[in-house]
Design a protein that fits this description.
Shape: elongated
Radius of gyration: 15 Å
Mean pLDDT: 89
Helix content: 10-25%
Structural class: alpha+beta
Length: 108
């Protein structure tokens, strides 16, 4: 059993950074920084300080909530946090929680 951290990043699907969808840009950072793995989830509706994120058929807009989740040891999560903050700034929410990994692959 390994003590680890779960990092979750809440964004809107249409958020961009340097002309690229933010969740894709962040996935590249996580991969480059050798975070053990990450998954992007798309929500069907949500709200936060930036308002409601939902599908609007009348305006033909899609700006659904997106959650990026990854699990790694604390040292690796702390190393990547400043780079993520530089991208996200006020456009999202970063949540970190403690967890234990019972089974997983290691990168050696």
């Amino acid at each position: 059993m390994i003590k680890a951290k779960i990092l979750k990043i809440y964004l809107k699907e249409g958020d961009k950074f340097k002309g690229e969808l933010m969740y894709k840009y962040i996935m590249k950072i996580l991969k480059r920084e050798k975070i053990s793995g990450a998954t992007v989830y798309k929500g069907i509706c949500g709200y936060g300080v930036r308002g409601i994120a939902e599908f609007d058929i009348f305006r033909l807009s899609v700006n659904l909530p997106v959650i990026i989740e990854c699990v790694d040891i604390e040292e690796n999560i702390n190393r990547v946090l400043p780079k993520l903050y530089e991208v996200i700034k006020n456009n999202g929410l970063i949540v970190i929680t403690d967890c234990y990994v019972y089974k997983g692959e290691t990168h050696e």
